Amino acid sequence: MTMNDREQIQEVMASYAKYIDAKDYDGIIACFMTDATFTYEGHSVIGRPAIVELIRTAVEPLNGTQHLFANIIVRIEGDTARLTCDCLGQHWRKGVAGGDKFMVGAKYSVQLERDDDGKWKISGGPPYCLT
User: Contact, 14 vs 69, CB < 8 A?
Assistant: First the structure.
């Protein structure tokens, strides 16, 4: 069975969420173009090693996360695409004053490109705003 472009793009995002939740940093790297730009909480970095380090810094202190994407819209133009979606991220860390769990809502806007092997990868993003 082969997936069309839209399905491949959605799978990249689902994989990205899965890898963050598993703290699988090699998996995260595989979701991005080599020179991708990534913006998170006011920090912008370029390149896969910097992206993974920024994500690692955010998730390592947590006992767990669960990221869910919804309302996915994909616009494809040749070998580039733009995906927008809503994200809910459940986070938990034992022993935090005020409660162990917190939910974050965000709106993602992600640029993707087809790599030399024909696979879709994140090239820019996910710039987002918290809701």
Answer: yes
What is the per-residue pLDDT across 53-78, written as a single tens digit (0 to 9) for each? 999 998 999 999 999 999 999 999 99
Domains and CATH numbers, the chain: 5-130 (3.10.450.50)
3-state secondary structure of 69: strand
Of 62, 61, 68, 74, residue with least CA distance to 7: 74
**What span, in angstroms and rounded, lies between the C-alpha atoms of 13 and 19?**
10
Q: Which residue, 129, 117, 127, 126, is CA-closest to 8?
A: 117
Query: What is the DSSP secondary structure assignment for residue 95, as one 8-state letter?
Result: T
Residues, the chain: 131
